[in-house]
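are you around this afternoon, could really use another pair of eyes. what follows is a protein written twice so to speak, once as letters and once as structure tokens for the fold. i want to understand how the tokens follow from the sequence so walk me through it. anything you notice is useful, everything is just below.
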Amino acid sequence: MTISATGVSLSIDGAAILTDVSIDIRAGEVLALVGPNGAGKSTLLSVLSGDARAGSGSVLIGGRDIHSFKALELARNRSVLTQENQVSFPFTVAEVVTMGRSPWERTPLREDDDVAIAAAIQATDVAHLTTRRYTSLSGGEKARVSLARVLAQRTPTVFLDEPTAALDLKHQEDVMATARSLAANGVAVVVVLHDLSLAAAYADRIALIAHGSLRAVGAPADVLTAAIVSEVYGLEVEIREQGGRPVVLPVRGHSAP
């Protein structure tokens, strides 16, 4: 089921955060949202997922306004990992991951709980943490457990806001490999990333956001050019290639004109 945003704009306290953004989210695809700090990436993700309401424009799921969905119905259509995804109470890791199955209570899909939870725990490498209290974990461990909860939800669209931010190199790669695996199974994945090379390595399409607008959207090689990246980030870069994908490297000691 496609999610489509058309002409989405949003202002907060008189400041334009998003301006006339139109984009489609497609099943079986990883779409990476990238851009400088404050560009509007997380806000766009919130609007696309229905957690925030645009000031103008529309977001449709399968042709239906996203805000016409009741909370439970929306939770069965999309899952969201936010930057502030925290659990204040000392639940165990196993309990936190199990929370991801709550939208499916009193439905036939409740029978999938054990399989979904086990698969999510394995995919995020948290099996050794299941008896630990969430509040006792490191930042990176909490991030992986929160991702496991989202994966256990098993929705056709998954939104991930900076899922690799607190992770070491191995677990960054694991998370993005999981995103690719989801897409291979028909899931639509939207992920906010700061690492342009990581986005290029795993995304089918990249949406580059600058000052709340879409500067470019398309295949990684088409979006992450030296000219476009240097312009948007105000930093001179060079583009190399690894495995047919662009790798973005800053030119040290220089800034873009």
